[in-house]
Design brief:
mainly alpha, DNA polymerase, domain 1, 2 domains
């Protein structure tokens, strides 16, 4: 904040736009926020200042004005997520204003943003996941098939899949050791089909003794998340599968197909590595009557749960 702006003077005289400029200066030069963050705050706070008018000061802004601004933004068709971000910017600004003694209270505190509509997970029907496994003439075919069988067959995040090391695989016990968010470890069962694909891939995998990653790129180094995303798109084009496929859609499909087959929600939570059952419960809102197959009839543990 510029030294010439004293707290006692600003509280009485500082216009809203001057206060915003000081806040942005502090955000960039004191808090060392990224240029993207500063620009985002600048856009949102500039819009709010314009709404309040040229004569607005920090102390003249009311809670009602904040609410009216949100209503106006909502009426213009903005998404709930955008409104929540704009409200957050205004609330952060007034937090700083109170701290710097520019005003006495944060007029945005307690104002509730509109609720975000619940986004249901997008899934692929079983025939689409099967299409991805059709043979192609790609040079990396064995690796790609093994990777898909593991990622979809175990419901893994793409980061978990590329993070697998050789010692995480137990082909005799049909198990994988997976490290999820926060390096939280879990053990997940390997479907029989995934075991067969892995055996075929590992038999031809070539790498130095130091490289422990399971899935490798053409340079014999650990495969990246971006490479997997690109591989999925290219494979969908070759096999005629849905080109909107993403690694996360495969994970959603895994969970939804299990739910359609009658697998317990708690069991699905454990397989996915969700910390909260509420996250897993999103799948109960899907129209599972449209799903016509159980995900994996050969899965040894799934059979025990379903029998």
């Amino acid at each position: 904040m510029p030294e010439s702006l004293k707290a006692t003077e600003m509280k009485a005289e500082l216009s809203l736009k001057e206060a915003v400029a000081s806040f942005l200066h502090e955000l960039a030069d004191v808090r060392l926020a990224s240029i993207h963050t500063v620009n985002a705050y600048r856009r949102d706070l500039s819009r709010f200042s314009d709404f309040c008018g040229e004569g607005a000061t920090v102390t003249s802004v009311t809670r009602t004005q904040v609410q009216d601004w949100l209503v106006s933004c909502h009426a213009s068709g903005l998404a709930a997520s955008t409104l929540a971000r704009r409200l957050s910017a205004v609330a952060s600004f007034f937090d700083a204003a109170v701290f710097n003694e520019w005003c006495d209270t944060n007029v945005a505190a307690g104002v509730r943003p509109p609720k975000k509509p619940q986004r249901l997970p997008r899934t692929l029907p079983p025939e689409q996941t099967s299409a991805l496994m059709h043979q192609t003439d790609r040079a990396s075919e064995m690796r790609d098939l093994a990777l898909l069988a593991v990622m979809y067959g175990c419901g893994l995040r793409v980061s978990e899949t590329v993070g697998l090391n050789l010692h995480d695989i137990d082909l005799f016990q049909f198990e994988l050791r997976v490290f999820g968010k926060g390096r939280k470890e879990r053990i997940v069962p390997l479907p029989e089909g995934a075991v067969q694909y892995l055996q075929g891939y590992l038999a031809e995998r070539v790498a130095s003794d130091e490289e422990k990653a399971v899935f490798l790129n053409k340079y014999a180094k650990r495969l990246s998340v971006r490479s997997v995303q690109r591989m999925l798109k290219e494979r969908a084009l070759l096999t005629g599968a849905d080109i909107s496929v993403t690694p996360h859609r495969l994970r959603h499909s895994f969970a939804t197909h299990l739910l359609a087959g009658g697998v317990d929600l708690r069991a699905i939570q454990e397989l996915l590595g969700h910390a909260s059952l509420a996250t897993t419960e999103r799948y109960t809102h899907l129209d599972i009557s449209k799903l016509t197959e159980v995900y994996d009839q050969t899965h040894p543990r799934a059979k025990k749960q379903m029998d």
